[in-house]
Specification:
Low-confidence stretches: 1-7, 10-17, 19-36
Strand content: over 45%
Number of strands: 27
Order of helices and strands: EEEEEEEEEEEEEHEEEHEEEEEEEEEEE
Helix content: under 10%
CATH class of the largest domain: Mainly Beta
Radius of gyration: 19 Å
Distance between the termini: 28 Å
CATH topology of the largest domain: Jelly Rolls
Largest sheet: 11 strands, antiparallel
Strand order of the largest sheet: 2-1-3-22-19-24-17-16-15-26-27
Mean pLDDT: 88
CATH architecture of the largest domain: Sandwich
CATH superfamily of the largest domain: Jelly Rolls
Number of domains: 2
Shape: globular
Length: 316
């Protein structure tokens, strides 16, 4: 992971998580890495926080010891007033973080970026800087070690530091149900195909079709609301703070609870993969609304496109 003041550490705590197997039997167990790659689900509250500096605490959500062979590492940071974290990304790695709560300042040799809960920052290979909290702040931080193996252009033509305001990005409506999508990590935004990220919004009682992805692992982190998720046709309840990790080819879908909206971010590594829909399911197609999440004209436009294509459209 990134170089930081008082690095979070590699200790893996014993937590209870649920693993969903193809055979249809649910297993609850203590940090036993399964031989088969299967869906993993747990809540952030099950992960103890470790100090990694003054007023800074880290929860290791996705690590190799918890999900063997995962190509993405994920942490949740809780920063108090005055906390300062050093960020150093390897020459072949990349990272991003999303400010979930509070305000912070991302500082580099070229200047400073004032951040709030509308911002997502992309940290390119070789990045050096600091993240400081003005008051209390919560950060979701992810890193892809050796991302250059997934996208050789990272070393040939490395991207630059980028900070986006996701509330200014265009909202897309699902053509066949009430879901909404906002892209937050794409080649157009960040200049790499090593990963892809989206924010998905399910209005109350919304259900998607069963499907799986080929060529990528991915995880979901629930930002708000609650609902039901399925992994290989086995249901389980999900709520704010839950992380669901799906292996390549893991069948899955979700439905929000009838009384509240559910919102989550999901990320794929690598960013381009094939989506296969269950027999009889309608292929998901995304239609531009011409508005951002606040109802204003968005910062850019994205055309209508289908999830049947593995490659993202050029304007995404």
């Amino acid at each position: 992971m990134a170089v930081r003041s008082g690095f979070c550490g590699a200790a893996l705590h014993r937590i209870t998580m649920v693993i969903y197997r193809d055979c249809g039997h649910n297993l609850a167990q203590h940090i036993v890495v399964p031989e088969r790659r299967v869906a993993v689900h747990f809540n952030e509250r099950a992960i103890p926080a470790e100090s990694f500096g003054v007023n800074a605490y880290c929860q290791q959500l996705l690590v190799d010891a918890r999900v063997k062979g995962t190509r993405i590492l994920l942490e949740r940071w809780t920063l108090g007033p005055g906390a300062m974290t050093e960020l150093g990304i390897g020459a072949r790695d990349l990272a991003w973080f999303q400010l979930l709560e509070g305000d912070a300042v991302l500082s580099t040799a070229a200047g400073a970026h004032a951040l709030n809960d509308a911002h997502i920052a992309f940290l390119p290979p070789g990045f050096r800087g600091t993240l400081g909290a003005r008051g209390d702040a919560v950060v979701l931080y992810a890193e892809v070690p050796d991302a250059a193996r997934l996208d050789p252009a990272l070393t040939e033509n490395p991207p630059q530091l980028r900070v986006i305001d996701w509330t200014r990005e265009p909202v897309l409506d699902s053509e066949h149900d009430a879901r909404k999508r906002i892209y937050v990590v794409t080649p157009k935004l960040f200049g790499t195909r090593a990963l892809k990220g989206e924010m998905i919004i399910y209005p109350p009682g919304t259900e998607a079709a069963n499907h799986h992805h080929e060529g990528a692992e991915h995880f979901m982190y629930v930002l708000a609301g609650s609902g039901t998720a399925w992994a290989n046709e086995q249901p389980f309840h999900v709520k704010k703070g839950d992380l669901i990790w799906y292996a390549d080819r893991e069948r899955h879908y979700l439905k929000s609870d009838p009384r509240e909206e559910m919102r989550f971010v999901e990320f794929f590594v690598p960013g381009e993969c094939t989506t296969v829909w269950a027999p009889g399911a309608k292929v998901c197609t995304w239609v531009p609304t011409g508005r951002d999440i606040r109802g204003n004209v968005p910062a850019r436009e994205i055309t209508k496109h289908s999830s049947a294509h593995s490659a993202l459209p050029q304007d995404v």
